[in-house]
């Protein structure tokens, strides 16, 4: 090839150029790299150019990819997203430029266009130095390369890693506020919980594990973490507003109001359940009563309404939070229900009432028949289970918010038998009464004679008494029936 026909063109060694073959009915264009350049300084028209690294156009690559996809479909071989991602990346890789620069400062630098191209500067680069490799596919506002991918002896940093399989000894996800660890075949979650759903959109009941508690909550969007949409979760009625900054429902009250609130439809799979809702009032004192209630409209598979279930509680005079708990035995043949969470406060006041969260869990999810399927040796006489139920009253002169207090040593009525090497002692504590939602109770240093009782306040509590119900049990074995966490 000579430059005789293109006197106006300037070419350099390593440039990419399009080669046009007009010997076909339709011109054929190919992209090629100038690999050799022999200049004739006396007669420039005789300069000889050698082309190499011929690259096909995008059309040919797309046709090849389509043919491969058709072939896979025809033989029944599933087309994986990973293979498609590889093919598309290969197309982009083959079409990218490779202008190489080496010096003692930049090391080995490859760009997609020449560095001296002022009109169309390079915006992708790979740089290799003794410290490692870094990759950029964009420019920063100042015109420098936006390096985002790094490979060094210390590891790899990237915005996204696409892979078919990752083989490693340990995986750590997150930071000090919350971590997920995968090591030695074990999954450890710190500062969070595990939620399992059977549908991609998490529309089924799901199972949630947090700490030592397993919940089969079936209320959708129970903590209002996402805005309610009225079709798949909560429907809001007049006077109810969603507060996205605090993930709660605020309710404007009026002197002529009746019970108002939110509702959603639920599928029912079990004859018994427990519903809970946490309410808060921003209006203290006064003679006007403040009420909260849970209502269930139950239906059979034909849409016929069955007997309803209602539970109502009234705030005490200076009560701020109210936890309403409603155990339910559904009418026979119930398959659907409409859950209403409502408040009533006959006074003109904006945001006077709030709904903080709503939960529903099935009772007796594990039947005795299912328990009988597990090995019987944990029920034999060697286990020697023992149980004690107790009540603790704590007198105090007032507690501030966020207080963590040791209330002293609690002794059991009778010491438990020694649990033995494989045994365990467990204490379950439940706050009780009007202040039950204002603090947590925890047992530490548990042995067969007693434990240390600690409380942590969630809000300020005026002087008075706090009540805690407790259950302590001992068994001559470790672990839980049918489940190990």
Automatic annotation (TrEMBL):
It comes from the Bacteria. This is Tail spike domain-containing protein. The lineage of its organism: Bacteria, Bacillati, Bacillota, Bacilli, Bacillales. InterPro entries: Tail_dom. It comes from Croceifilum oryzae. Residues 5-62 form the Tail spike domain.
